[in-house]
């Protein structure tokens, strides 16, 4: 009898069936959402959210999150947005260039210096906005770390600032700049991060010089 070959296609089918058959109670999904909102994303957070009524749904939760992330990435790639398409292209470039291994996080260190050393108004002076929390949000984002809980006033402040940045980016002029940056990256021959390690976190797209 001929032995059945286990091909990558068959493996994908098995994985899809496993995800499809991994039933997660609604309460577990809600618990997972609350944990992610409160504690940020990490494997430990996922595992902590996987227990419900003395049952362990960790495998199902990990499969569910992995599938959801993959689906979200595909939705972004298929989204008709110049900015999102360019961001996706840049992220793929950074991943292929192993930037995370070379980056020394200078920008995050600068933000941390502000948190630790700069004098800032107290939350009472800013209607509850905690600038240390706001700067910590930026630092965590630059480091790729899970976000911590913030006060409602600080969250509203950051949301407004991000909305303003989005408005500034969603213009014809910004789209032209994004296309130009993307074209420059597409035309270049190589980005030598080993030769210029400071570029990894300060200028990963080599925008301050002519690409060759």
Question: What features would you describe in this structure?
Answer:
The chain has 212 residues and is an all-alpha fold. The chain folds into two domains: 8-77, no CATH class; 82-202, no CATH class. The protein has eleven helices and two strands; from the N terminus they run αααββαααααααα. The protein has helices at residues 8-21, 26-39, 43-48, 58-77, 82-96, 99-102, 106-117, 131-143, 152-169, 172-187, 199-202; strands spanning 51-52, 55-56. Strands 1-2 form a two-stranded antiparallel sheet. The model is unreliable at 1-21 (pLDDT under 50).
Labels describing this entry:
single chain; 212 residues; mainly alpha; 2 domains; globular
Question: What is the fold's blueprint, element by element?
Answer:
Blueprint: H1 8-21, H2 26-39, H3 43-48, E1 51-52, E2 55-56, H4 58-77, H5 82-96, H6 99-102, H7 106-117, H8 131-143, H9 152-169, H10 172-187, H11 199-202
Antiparallel strand pairs: 1-2
Helix pairs in contact: 5-10, 7-8
SSE order, one letter for each helix or strand: HHHEEHHHHHHHH
Order of strands, main sheet, comes to 1-2
Number of domains: 2
Helix proportion range? 55-70%
Class by SSE composition: mainly alpha
Instruction: Please mark out the parts with pLDDT under 50 across 5 or more consecutive residues, or reply none.
Output: 1-21
Span from first to last CA? Answer: 59 Å
């Amino acid at each position: 009898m001929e032995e059945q070959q286990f091909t990558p296609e068959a493996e994908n089918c098995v994985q899809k069936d496993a995800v499809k058959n991994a039933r997660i109670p609604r309460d577990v999904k809600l618990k997972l959402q609350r944990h992610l909102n409160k504690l940020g994303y990490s494997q430990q957070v996922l595992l902590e959210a996987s227990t419900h009524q003395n049952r362990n749904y960790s495998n199902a939760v990990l499969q569910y999150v992995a599938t959801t992330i993959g689906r979200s990435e595909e939705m972004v790639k298929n989204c008709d947005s110049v900015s999102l398409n360019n961001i996706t292209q840049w992220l793929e470039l950074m991943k292929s260039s192993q930037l995370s291994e070379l980056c020394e996080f200078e920008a995050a260190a600068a933000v941390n210096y502000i948190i630790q050393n700069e004098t800032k108004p107290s939350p009472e002076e800013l209607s509850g906005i905690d600038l240390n929390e706001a700067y910590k949000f930026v630092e965590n984002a630059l480091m790729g770390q899970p976000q911590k809980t913030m006060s409602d006033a600080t969250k509203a402040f950051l949301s407004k600032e991000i909305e303003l940045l989005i408005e500034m980016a969603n213009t014809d002029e910004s789209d032209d700049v994004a296309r130009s940056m993307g074209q420059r990256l597409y035309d270049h021959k190589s980005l030598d991060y080993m030769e210029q390690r400071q570029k990894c976190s300060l200028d990963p797209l080599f925008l301050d010089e002519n690409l060759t």
